[in-house]
Amino acid sequence: MNNFETVIGLEVHAQLNTATKMFCPCPQADYKAGANSAICPVCTGQPGTLPAANVKAVELGVKTGLALNCRVNEISIFARKNYFYPDLPKSYQVSQFDRPLCEAGSVEIDLKPSGSKTIRVARAHLEEDAGKSLHALGSRALDYTLVDFNRCGVPLIEIVSEPDISSADEAHAYLTELKRILQWAGVSQCDMEKGELRCDVNISLKAAAVKELGQKVEIKNLNSFKAVKDAINSEIARQTAMIERGETVAQDTRLWNEKEQKTVPMRSKEMAHDYRYFPEPDLVPLRIAAARLETAKNELGELPRARKTRFMKDFGLNNYDAGVLTSDRCLSAYFEACMKEAPPSAAEGEAKAVANLITGEFFARANELKVNPEDYLSKTISPVSLVKLAALTSAGKLSASAAKTVFAGSWGTGKTPEALMGELGLAQVSDSVQIEAWAREAIAANPDAAKDFKNGNEKALGPIVGMVMKKSGGKANPRLANEAIKKILAA
Ligand SMILES: [Zn+2]
Predict the structure, then answer these.
(1) Neighbours of ion ligand 1 (CB under 5 A)
(2) Is the CATH number 3.40.50.300 carried by domain 432-490?
(3) The pLDDT of residue 272 is above 80
(4) pTM exceeds cut of 0.85
């Protein structure tokens, strides 16, 4: 019985890729840094200190807006969000409220097995992170809490979607696309294990026939795509069961319990915070000049979805290959550099051969040697060599195993495939006289197979071709070997 529609909105926090914090010159400390080793009077809220907005963080905020098709507001305002918590020494967080930096955007997601959907983005605004509390069990039955302020003031962009998401799978697709865009734009590294991308889920169910939405339940602080999916599915099941029992779902803030695979209450509506937002008096309104907006647009360049469409159109790649090759900006640049080396007359098969080589052999080796995508052009195999290798393989001038050897020899050495083939004696033999001689020997060694083939069994050719390859040390051109054997047996 599934007569309910699910309505989901996501609030995503991404840590901005800056060297320093949002309002002070403290560095963004590595998670391995000692507790409270990257703090100052500003980010620990000492009296008399003044914040100064980080220009780089603002630039990244602008890029986020542009990449998410938002309107970037010329004027936006920082606001104080007031609440007390031990890891928030100022007792307020500087955020943006009624005048955010970016509004009214959209993200297009892929639906499985096919199709797409547009998820509207309500807003994206700048804010600072809070510190971290470490709860521990003390001696003499005393629990205690330690506070690390290193994260206090780390710049974040909060991206709030409209409630356009209808399932756990759509939420997953939205987060995947959002992460790809933010990484592409250089806004955030989005490493979820380091807490650089966190997600809150708002979810409510409504009976299909009913117009108004049910009460909204919020699930806080999800830090993996899997947790988001599992928490949504668990919450759909919980709310469905409640409605079917005739109970009312209360407005609620919950946490995901990974171990028990269920959401648990955090605070009820009665305990909901009243943040008493007001404009931050220590910071002037943020004004984005037209020239700055233009610079950000130019630096952003082509976005991943547009590049994927172009790869499909220009190079005849299928949806899957184009998606993989545009999953990372540096990877797509490497592929494009390869295609620049391909002859202009190259057929679609050429692009496919290059794509296969990159998603197969190239990925395997790059992962094994932990080469970062930024180093693809300098520390792997040159685009000229990769294209040459793909062409030699497709033309049958290199066997699959010889291609692997050449690939490995070319990696990081700058040696060309031709030079390596000469060096390693790997050039495929296409000399018809030599191939015919091997073919005669192979037929003589396989009289039964030869007879079967003459009687119409096409498969009987296999062992004979195999023998030719063996005799030639894997160097015979298999297509020519095939032809030679057929010619001899037909005579
Ligand atoms: Zn500081």
Answers:
(1) 24, 26, 40, 42-43
(2) no
(3) no
(4) no
